[in-house]
Write a structure and sequence with these properties.
The complex is a heterodimer of chains A (250) and B (221).
Chain A (H helix, E strand, L loop, with lengths): L4 E9 L2 E2 L14 H11 L4 E5 L4 H15 L6 E4 L5 H10 L3 E4 L1 H5 L2 H10 L4 E9 L4 E5 L4 E6 H11 L3 E6 L11 H10 L4 E4 L5 H10 L4 E4 L1 H4 L5 H10 L6
Parallel strand pairs in A: 1-3, 1-11, 3-4, 4-5, 5-6, 6-9, 9-10, 10-11
Antiparallel strand pairs in A: 1-2, 6-7, 7-8
Helix pairs in contact in A: 1-2, 2-3, 8-10
Chain B lengths: L25 E5 L7 H9 L3 E5 L10 E4 L5 H8 L3 H9 L4 E4 L1 H4 L2 E4 L10 E7 L7 E6 L1 E2 L11 E6 L1 E5 L4 E6 L3 E8 L2 E4 L7 H18 L1
Parallel strand pairs in B: 1-2, 1-3, 3-4, 4-13, 5-6
Antiparallel strand pairs in B: 6-10, 7-9, 8-11, 11-12, 12-13
Classes of the chains: A alpha/beta (250), B alpha/beta (221).
Chain lengths: 250, 221
């Protein structure tokens, strides 16, 4: 049986992890390849790097970091943030990413999804969707959440699947940063609509939140940042908690 | 603090250039021109081999060991091998050790529903789309096997990322995995090992699998 995945996410800028990271007694804090390695040792099923800078210099730095990380970890690595073209995706894969996530570029030019899927395979192409609640539905946002697109999240999710995306990284902008839990309704809606794996993201603050998202929705994976960075819990704590409650994990 | 249940321990790569030790076995990883080959190269290095990445397929023709990595889509990979198909096939039939991973496994078959170009046809049968409604099959899943290549592996979970599976028409299946159906996750013919999962992405379990692969090659060469 396929297990549920736990994915620590590192926000990277200028070659460093920017969200506060408060590990104790560990070397190399803030250096992404070292952090990725620590998470891998704790049992992370994948690692995600999100590049939150935009300049081209920073892009080179990121690719360098990806290359160093790929030599060090032996679980899949997803890289996202600022990927605008098939060539950007190729460079990220060449540098050592296993999957690449695209967001704004996919909304602006949906055919990039099918082009990348044809060349690199669907399993490499992750479409990141940033969603924010309106009255009784959710809208798609781009440019790191700054621009609202008049498009329903569930419709967009279906479209990216049809275009050949391999996975959806679904972030609730309402929940993100609150540590109040994932947006279960949003996750449920999207995961029930599409047949590709959905990674739930945004809002994770406790072990129970991760259990909730797996027991109440069809999410395939849960992404979390601060609970791991602040050392509140290790990935291994999460796995133990889930295993004790009957969720199949590695 | 809860104790970490499964800490990841990788086999140490041994420096075989010391006096009295045999040189590391050279393994040639085919570069189809797409995707990430860092992990497989590094993983084979840790497993005790001396990996080289070959973007010129011609160089495969006298390589000791061929690795068909699991990156990209079927047609670009099959196209890259096309000009040397007959020679590669002869070498595989003659027992040259080979490891196929994911797409690299698929191209060993006669054809695939994913592409229009024929594969190498070393393994009889074709590659078909997974039956599940949830495709691609992405994540860590169990390999059920008692094959010697898994000896010493503690956790049966390996990383998969695919939409297609091999459907061999000969008796070569050595292990299977379940995902809405049972499909072959490891097949062996002559000295070729073909897996559906990604050993280079499968943490400690993948590392032990690759170490076994390198060990068995050394015994054969």
């Amino acid at each position: 049986m396929l297990t549920k995945r736990i994915i620590p996410c590192l926000d990277v800028t200028d070659g460093k992890v920017v969200k506060g990271v408060k590990f104790q007694n560990l070397k190399g804090i803030g250096y992404p390849p070292d952090l990725a390695h620590i998470y891998e040792q704790q049992g992370a099923d994948e690692i995600t790097f999100l590049d939150i800078t935009a300049s081209s210099d920073a892009r080179e730095t990121l690719l360098n970091i990806v290359e160093k990380t790929a030599e060090k970890i032996f679980v899949p690595l997803t890289v996202g943030g600022g990927i605008r073209s098939k060539e950007d995706m190729r460079s990220a894969l060449k540098a050592g990413a296993d999957k690449v996530s695209i967001n704004t570029a996919a909304v602006q030019n949906p055919s990039i999804i099918s082009e990348c899927a044809e060349e690199f395979g669907s399993q490499c192409v992750v479409v990141a969707i940033d969603a924010k609640k309106d009255e009784d539905s959710w809208s798609v946002y781009t440019h790191g959440g700054r621009n609202k697109i008049e498009m329903d999240v569930v419709d967009w999710a279906q479209k990216v699947e049809d275009l050949g995306a391999g996975e959806i990284l679904l972030t609730s902008m309402d929940a993100d940063g609150t540590t109040d839990g994932y947006d279960l309704k949003l996750t449920e809606k999207v995961a029930d609509q599409v047949n590709i794996p959905v990674i739930a993201s945004g809002g994770c603050g406790t072990l129970e939140h991760i259990y909730e998202v797996f027991s109440q929705t069809n999410a395939s994976a849960a992404l979390a940042a601060s609970i791991f960075h602040y050392g509140t819990y290790t990935v291994s704590d999460v796995k133990t908690y889930l295993r004790d409650r009957g969720v199949l994990v590695r | 603090m809860v104790e970490i249940r499964r800490s990841v321990k990788y086999p140490e790569s041994n420096d075989s250039y010391r006096i009295g030790q045999r040189p590391k076995v050279k393994v040639s990883i085919v570069d189809y021109g797409v995707g990430n080959l860092h992990s497989i190269r590094k993983a084979l290095e840790l497993a005790g081999a001396r990996p080289v990445i070959e973007s010129n397929v011609r160089n495969l023709l006298d390589s000791e060991v061929m690795i068909f990595p699991g990156v990209g889509a079927f047609d670009p990979a099959a196209e890259k091998l096309e000009p040397y198909k007959e020679i590669i096939l002869d070498r595989l039939n003659a027992g040259t050790p080979c490891l196929g991973i994911c797409i690299g496994t698929h191209i060993l078959f006669e054809k695939s529903e994913e592409g229009s170009i024929p594969g190498l046809g070393f393994m009889k049968g074709k590659v078909e789309k997974l039956h599940s409604e949830k495709v691609p099959h992405i994540g860590w899943n169990e390999v059920t096997t008692d094959d010697k290549y898994f000896s010493g592996v503690e956790s049966p979970y390996f990383y998969f990322a695919h939409s297609y599976k091999a459907n061999p028409e000969e008796d070569i299946v050595k292990g299977t995995t379940e995902y809405y159906e049972t499909f072959p996750s490891i097949m062996r013919k002559k000295n070729t090992v073909a897996v559906q999962f990604h050993p280079e992405k499968s943490g400690a379990s993948g590392a032990i699998f690759l170490k076994n692969f390198v060990k068995f090659i050394e015994e054969k060469l």
